[in-house]
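Hi, here's the filled form for the chain we discussed.

Project: internal
Contact: R.S.
Residues: 339
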Amino acid sequence: MPVNRNALIRYRTIDQCLQNRRRKWTLDDLIEACSDAIYEYQGIDTGISRRTVQADIEMMRSNKLGYEAPIIVVDKKYYTYADKDYSITNSPISAQDMQVLGEVSGLLKQFKGFNHFADLNEMVSKLEDKIYTQKTQLSPVIDFEKNDNLKGLEWIEVIRKAIVEKKTMCITYQSFKAREASIFCFSGYLLKEYRNRWFVLGRAHRRNSPLLTLALDRIQTIEEHTESYRENIELDLATYYNNVIGVTKTPNQRDCEVVFWIDKDNAPYVITKPLHHTQKLLSEDETGKTFSIRVIMNFELERELLGFGSKIRVLGPRILVKQMRAQIKKTLERYENNF
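And the returned structure, exactly as it came back:
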């Protein structure tokens, strides 16, 4: 059964809404969400009719597309999934969907040789592996790094839209150190991924509030707020993270040259996978190689260096050497003490 692009956008939007169980969804809420999605992706601003969304819900409930979505109505008003773990994205891919995916993959491959689209290489490989697995029912031939238990991914699209549309978010957030959650208005500027964990850089609407980097897995709720969006007028977002490993940074923090020695057995790993794009080989001998990187000092840098254990020795700057010694001393004490 042919399904046009607008219908697929609406199905996916309804699915995303019903997966968000922190909010109660009326039919009017779903209509508004679908209208916003169609406008964002297709540029159509005529809105979506009530009858269309009702028909979409019935189509999702049926097995015509293979969804058989368990959509129920609570209190004769609110739509939700009877199965809290259900999503149409977990449904088997239809033959028509496979054809579309194949066409998309073919289109993307045409851009693989262009420098501007270098990041597409991994995306195309992932897509083709999924198509191969679905068609042949065999095991994947590529095992990409993933974390199925990762929290906060449902906020990526919500935050992305808020940044693009320059809308203020009202966020309920609880860091690992906080005893209870706090609620504040927030203008987001940039989504950042580090080691399969997602963060958003932005500013809270508080007096003299510094830039904040919020972990998406610590966000409890996000709602749109009417307060005016606060523009970024001080940062070059394209280069903000160029001198950092990880995400921990303040705007005026200065970088420094970090020098370290790696033994000969592990030096090849550092050469083939540099710690940072500024990495340089300074010297080498029969025992190992000495490198430098130019980054700011933060928690992620220390953790990266400590991860090499006895294979590394940090040579500078002096303050970092001191911090590394202190951390190693604590580690030894934990092994020497009887718990």
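Let me know if anything looks off before we file it.
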